[in-house]
Each structure stands twice: as structure tokens, then as C-alpha cells.
Amino acid sequence: MSDQKNTYALAGKSVIVTGGSRGIGAEVARRFGAAGAKVAVFYRSGADAAAKVVEDINAAGGQGLAVVADIANPDAAKAAVEIVATKFGGIDVVVNCAGIAEYRPFEKTDAALFHAHFNTNVLGTVAVIQAALPHLPSPGGRIVNFSSALATRPIPNSAIYSASKGAINTLSHALAREFGPRGITVNTIAPGVIETEMTTKILAERGEGIKAMTPLGRIGQPDDIAGVALFLASPDAGWITGRTFIVDGGVSTL
What pTM does this model have? Predict the structure, then answer.
């Protein structure tokens, strides 16, 4: 990694990254590790993948910790956060990357699909923030939530997923106002299509079309998103809160 990726004065900071065993979350966790942070990798499944991310964090000069938790269960989320606070001596940054996405025609949407999305994508985010809040420094705490470009630019069959991510946008804006007097910032990253396991199917079906409508002429990579999270968690972003950053290679500007 270049020196540019190791800036932002994050060495020694304690960071939680939910969904940190794969995709964007894994790259976010690695980048914080390369910046010298102590990084807790939350995962629900895939212990081997989480262990590999922790290995990468340690090799890069950070301190990694894998924590298994189903954050859709508030009690499990709280227990996991307490493990981190005890192990790392506090929590400075929370990055909520965990999420699920299943696209289905609206007529075939059922309660199980709805609850699966809102329990993980929304309740999970709420539960982790609630558990971490007593440990965040005031001032100086950082919360970075993950939404999606589909929250404001949905596509057919994405109604439930898009709605859950729209809830994250609003949640973040509200919490930024509520936590602002404490000096805790809350921001949202809304990626476009990024090449991960979650987007394998859509890229196989529409990858060339997506690339053609992207001004930068390529498909986004997890590393394109991780640097934004690193910046928003840093002291350099201390005057930024309540904002949603659409990071989609310029599609939203067309």
C-alpha cells in the first residue's frame, strides 16, 4: 500500500467494522489496519475469511480481532461490542458495513424478506451504535454507516433493499443532529455497484452496461470505497457530519 493510504492519524484508534469478513467491509478493515488501528472484524459467518482479514491487519501493522455476532440480535450486538471495548480499552470508530441484499419482484416479496433486510441492514446498525455509544469519545467519536446508491436511485426488484438503505440515510442524518452536541460525527457512504461476492450475479448480467454508463469507465472496487471510510473516521473529517456520500464513479452526475 502507498503512504497515502496510511495517513489520517488513525494509529492506535479502536475501530469496529461490521460485515468485516468479506467485500467492502473486509477492505475497510484492512485499510484501518494499515493505518495502525486496532480493528474488530464483526462477522456472522465465515470464520476462516474473518481470520484471514485479521491476519492481514496484523501483517500491515495494526491489531486485529475477529468477533462473531449476529448484529440483528441486539443482545448479541451488545455482547460483541463489550468484548471490543474490554479488549481494546475503548471504541473510537464504528463502521457499519454489514448488510444483505436480495432483489425480488415486488409481487413475490414476503414478510420474511422484509424482516431479513430490515433486521440486518437497519436494526443491526441501530443495535451496534446503541451498544458502542457509551464508549465513544465525546468529542471525537466517529460513526460511518453504509447505505447504497439504490436508496435514492432504485432499480426494478430492489424495493425492499432500497427501502432499508433509505432508512440508513435518514437514521444517519437524525443521529448526526442528536450526537452533534457531543462532538460525535455520523456520516453515510452510499456505494454504487462494487465488484464483490454480493454483486456477482448483477455484474454477470449487466456488467458491461454498468461500465458503459459510468463516466470513469470501469466497475468500482472495494478499495475505492475503503479510503472514503478511512477519511470520514479521521480527525480531518471533524467538520463533516450528517452527510451521505454517493460513491459510484460518477453515475449519479449523469
Answer: 0.94
